[in-house]
Amino acid sequence: MPMIKTLHKWLSLLVGLQLLIWLGTGLYFNLMDHEKASGTQNRQSVESPTVDLQLLIDPKTVLQAGTNVVSLSQVILLSHPYYLLAHEKGLYRHFKSHYSLVDAVTGKPFVITKTIATAIALESYKGSAKIISTVKLTEKSDDFPKEQNSLWRVNIDDALNTSVYVDAGSGRLIGHSNDDKRFVDFIFMLHFMDYASEGSFNNVQIIVFAIFTLFFAFTGLIWTVELAYNGQYKPALLLGRTLANRKMVDIFDKHDKSLGPLAMFAHENLLDSLLNHDIALPSTCGGGGTCGRCKIVVDSSVKMTSADKSQFTAHELKSGYRLACQHNSDELEQLTLVDVTEAASQELRLISSEFISPYIKELRFKSVNDRPVKFRAGAFMRFFIPAAKGNSIPAYLPAELLHHWQDVVHMEYEHLACSRNYSLANGDGQSDELVFTVKIQTSPNERVKPGIGSSYICNLAPGSTIEAVGPFEEFYALPSSGKPMVMIGAGSGMAPLKALIEEQLIQKNSSREIYFYFGARSQLDLIYSDHFQQLSERFSNFHYLPVLSRPGQDWGGATGYVQDHLAKYLATGLQKAQDKAEFYLCGPAAMMESTIDLLKDHGIGDNAISFDKFE
């Protein structure tokens, strides 16, 4: 089932993108100027003169002289009569054919030369024209891709870059093309998926797309059936209750001690419902069923979802293990908690909100009740983002940062309530403030909202309050043993690593070797650089290595990607001690995946690698 879901999601991207292309190009076809689309703004009709048949030689004479003649017809070229002999004739005029011409008066063979092709083109052109070039094409024309015969292209110097095409065998005027027609041809190419320029909608791309669409519908049907089979589709009316109704669910702790019944809304997600009752199950994937941490035990008759099957063994599933985020209150009468995080609800007041890079803000909070919130370095808190109106451009944007945001799509939008996790960035134990570094996720286009959580929390004004729960201590330094600590981070993923470093150096005054590899694009994205430089000067056991992927000319430090420099370190300085070093990672998923693969390739075990999921 995970493969079905992955396939369905990627196919939805492909199908959705093509549907948008069809909508856009279809709208253009309805609004376009059809005269311009034809490319004939400068084309004029050519009147054929009356021919005195008595002056023409007998066609039989021409046929007797010719070889393998399929048909003979009379044509007028440049006001002169000719016989057109077809030695090989396609079903349609643009199909591959073989023609020859004979002067209908003299009986002499006639060939469409460069001069003749130019004259035929000028005869069809309205007004005076300056010829840029006349070229005999050896390959298929982009302007007339269906034409399979050899063509002369006459390029004219006008405002529309007109080109006139003449059949090199028959002298037939194929047509005019210009920039207007070429743009329309490009739109047609997108609309009919004619990416190979075949000049036809009956192409392999459409056939492949039709197959993909069939698979998209088929995987969607399988997913829908799976959700229905597992009880995920149960409309309230069919259940004979409304959402205002509640049901009682008996709750037990991991020692089978009853915690009493809890009232849950009908069809309410168990992870959210338990949190509403101040029971916080660990979760880092936001309810997607991928982290496998919100474990509960229920009656084994509760149906298993594909996420359950991917996270638990067959024995655990038979014992009733399920993921709370994948089930709702209607499915059970009781549940047992496996791993409950001790965390309390907090009302936090924003003390300050400052940009520390063009897209990252440092937010400082304090508890409204003035009680210090205790936490271990590396912890995170879950913020409750209320339904509200948002703006893609931050409020209180400093003047010196305006040019960084000038290309960001400006939009106002509304969003529903949600929750987001943010890691604490301070760990020195010298303040009761809660510090967070949050990157504002911008919108790639007008159809996609920017990051709801990051935009909301970074637009709060100092003095504002917000609800949160935590701290959750799931990523932290292993019990001190003197082992070297190697930390690898990037972007706003620095937050928990910064907290770990401060905890070791300032709070605990640890003498263990600490290596901090931090990746950023440019100097502007190198947050807290001065702070870490000062720590490296103050503590000889702390080594700070910033790495820039897009450095400026004045940068004299390491360049490239942070994991590449870690590879050099593994191959040299840590090669002898890698079995006793500890590795801590936080940053974008791609960076962490490649770094973990690198560490494993160097024989470093899972028990020596800790990482904070960057969700």
TrEMBL record:
Alphabetical UniProt keywords: FAD, Flavoprotein, Membrane, Transmembrane, Transmembrane helix, Ubiquinone
Pfam families, A to Z: Fer2, NAD_binding_1
Keyword Disulfide bond: no
Domain 2Fe-2S ferredoxin-type: 247-344
Stored CDD domains: NADH_quinone_reductase (cd06188)
GO molecular function annotations of the record: iron-sulfur cluster binding; oxidoreductase activity
Residue ranges occupied by any FAD-binding FR-type domain in the UniProt entry: 343-478
Coiled coil: none
Superkingdom of the source species: Bacteria
TM regions (residue ranges): 206-229
Protein's recorded name: 2Fe-2S iron-sulfur cluster binding domain-containing protein
